[in-house]
Design brief:
Elements (H helix, E strand, L loop, with lengths): L1 H19 L3 H25 L8 E5 L5 E5 L21 H16 L6 H35 L4 H29 L4
Antiparallel strand pairs: 1-2
Helix pairs in contact: 1-2, 3-4, 3-5, 4-5
Length: 186
Amino acid sequence: MKKKILLAAAAAFGIIAVATGCTAQDTQILSQYLAQLQNSSSQSQSQDNSNTVTSSQAPVQDNNNNQTQQTAPSSQAPVQNYTPQITTNFDLTAITQEVAAMEQKANAAQRSASYQQNWNTYNQIKLEIKQVEYKIEAMENQAEMAARTGALSYAQYQQIDYELDRLDDRLDWAEDSLEYRLGVDD
């Protein structure tokens, strides 16, 4: 029964990966998750079978003809709980400076005679803007985690989230103005 569920989960992951166009990194993450499911499934099966004698548990007779149970050592590593590192120091000056630098770079971009050159310039700067947006998103996630665990008050979280949203909006405006300035439609 558990194998059928596991196979159904694997099939579902495969269908999702193909349908959504997952990248190699996404596929690797899904594969790791599937491996974890398989490990947990095998662990639960071994716990279900703990009352019966298996190949790793066999009755052994000692020198006095007494039967004892001998258990083979477990080859599985002990399960360790994952505890994320929670940051409570949210200094936004560095990320604010990165946003300002991206705004300057977007404003300094000049239109050239070739549409292809404009497109390449746009994509290059857009990629750099996206990297800064990912940093902002990561900080938002860290702040939310800190608020959920109580390391930050709700008011502190709201203030940090508001400032990070403003920085993200500034990047969106820089990207839109870059698109307009270079005459590309993305």
